[in-house]
Amino acid sequence: MKPLMFTRGVVYRIGRGACWLAISGAVVACNGSESSDPASAADTVGVGEGSPEAALKERRKRKLRSWLDTLPPRPPAQPLGATLGPSAGVAVATCEGDGVIVTGPGPLAMPSSSVAHSGGRWYFEATVEQYEAGWSSVGVFAPPTGLIDIVASSHFDAGSAAGFSPTGLSTVSVAVDLEAGRVYFYVDGVLTSERSLTLLPGVGAFRAAGVAMTGNSIRFNFGSEPFEHGVPAGYEPWSGGDEDANGACISDSNGSAPPAPVTVICEQGEECAPTTFEAETRAPTDLVVLGVYDSGGVSSWRWGTDDNGNPIQVPTGEGRNGSIVVDVNRPGRVALVLTAYEPTDWTIRTGSRTQLASVSAYGMHQQTVTGLHAGVPLDIHTICADGNGGSCSVRTDEWFPIGAYQWPYSSGGGDTQGFVRHVEERLGLPLKLFAAAYKARGFVVE
Questions:
Q1: How many C-beta atoms lie closer than 10 Å to residue 33's C-beta?
Q2: In Å, how far are 227, 253, 352 from 244, measured between CA atoms?
Q3: CB 239 within 8 A of CB 96
Q4: Distance between CA atoms of 409 and 205, rounded to whole angstroms?
Q5: Is the pLDDT of residue 11 over 50?
Q6: How far apart are CA 321 and CA 376, in angstroms?
Q7: C-alpha span between 52 and 38 (Å, rounded)
Q8: Cis bond leading into 144, ω under 30°?
Q9: CB 223 within 8 A of CB 237
Q10: How many Å separate Cα 62 from the centre of its chain?
Q11: Predicted model pTM
Q12: Could you tell me which residues come within 8 angstroms of residue 242 by beta carbon, excluding any fewer than 6 positions away?
């Protein structure tokens, strides 16, 4: 099962009271009350001593509260008009790119441009020449999101993908501002929709693309033929930019995030495609986040159907948690955050120069942590209360973003940035190191 995304806050609890873990000062402050509203209390968790109000005040005084604060500011989006101007009537491509791509109306087609851009402002058109119905979409995407993600992004912002779903015969004009992270969609020359692109370290170069469902025919023009409408001022045709000696467009390469000094250990003989990131943050305590989806557990059930064809869970025997060993050799104070979707037993081993300020474990299913020295604060958070091999018939009252197993986004449906933001706010520390993989069996943090 793919992870779901939850955003409601939770409160750390130690004993009977609601407690706030102040990692930078190694202080645990509890209000001593019998209960507390998680929705309101989550907003008051931070760094500081004493009451949660004091913690919040201290956090607000900090110059740096998130790793996002280290990113250089992006220029504001250039406002575009409500309508596009007239076409120049001639091909405006400045290099040899993809020409024209026509889909359908046969089976499902998912074309994308061979030319990719990581900056600048670009324009292309997609004319729907035959339309029946369905979830056809036109837009742009960049790794780690895939082409299919432009369908979902037609309805909400989806990281490094943005799309629009036409509803009939029309020309969809797409103006992509990769400096400000904004995409404008015009239908027959009229501005109809805008989408945001989240441009983070680790996002690759963008390609123009589309998803044409069966029965729909879409004609993509990147500038090799006259456009139906005028290219907005400050924009270039998608088939534009630098060219090689033969006049062919030169694509930008996929960028990479600054790697973290973390080794991800895969299943023996398997590749697990780990991703890591080191932020340019400075804090008395390094916030280290390690994530995985599949930790090698055995499920206690499989999906089946009843006599009426309805899906049911079929028991397959006793389940078993996966297991991951984490070696932390990083000098200094470390706030270690572990997250796994599946049931996982974590074993922690620390080097002589490492001081664990705290350990937090988050999961959709049961999580356990062993190997800690006496006095290291530990808190565990799960959404499912029963831990037999991934079954989730009983829910806890905790809600938080899950599925942080890829940087900068979990393309399978998880919420990496939401999870990072959650733990930054919970611990009052900016992210320093992140490392994750869909399948992993261990981590070594240096």
A1: 10
A2: 24, 15, 54
A3: yes
A4: 15
A5: no
A6: 24
A7: 13
A8: yes
A9: yes
A10: 26
A11: 0.81
A12: 95, 249, 250
Q: Quote the Cα angle for 223-228-233, to 5°.
A: 70
- 17-22 sheet: strands from edge to edge: 12-14, 17-22, 27-30
Residue 64 CB contacts under 8 Å (≥ 6 apart), including other chains:
70, 281, 282, 283, 430
**Which structure tokens are listed for 30?**
């509890």
Return phi, psi of residue 50, to 5°: 85, -135
Q: How far apart are CA 279 and CA 116, in angstroms?
A: 26
Place of tokens 């992140």: 434
Q: How far is 156 from 173, CA to CA, in rounded Å?
A: 19
pLDDT at 387: 61
Query: What pLDDT is stored for residue 411 in this prediction?
Result: 73
Can you give the length of the chain in residues? 446
| Dist. CA 113–CA 176, nearest whole Å | 14
- In DSSP notation, 259-279 reads PPSEEEEPSTT-----EEEE-
Amino acid at 395: R
pLDDT tens-digit map of 315-370? 888 888 999 999 999 999 999 999 999 999 999 999 999 999 999 999 999 999 99
User: What's the pLDDT at 390?
Assistant: 61
Q: How confident is the model at residue 391 (pLDDT cuts 50, 70, 90)?
A: low
Measured CA to CA in angstroms, residue 156 lies from 195, 205, 262 at distances of: 8, 21, 33
- Which residue shows structure tokens 């030169």? 250
pLDDT band at 9 (very low <50, low <70, confident <90, very high): very low
Beta bridge partners of 170: 128
Long-range pairs, 147-155, Cβ under 8 A, ≥24: 147/110, 147/112, 147/207, 147/209, 147/211, 148/110, 148/211, 149/411, 150/209, 150/210, 150/211, 151/211, 153/195
- pLDDT tens digits, residue range 243-285? 999 999 999 999 889 999 999 999 887 888 999 999 999 999 9
Confidence (pLDDT) at 148: 86
What is the spatial distance between Cα 53 and Cα 50, in angstroms, rounded to a whole number?
8
pLDDT of the residue at 303? 85
Residue with tokens 């390469």: 253
Closest CA to 258 of 117, 435, 413: 435
Helix (H, G, I), strand (E, B) or coil at 200: coil
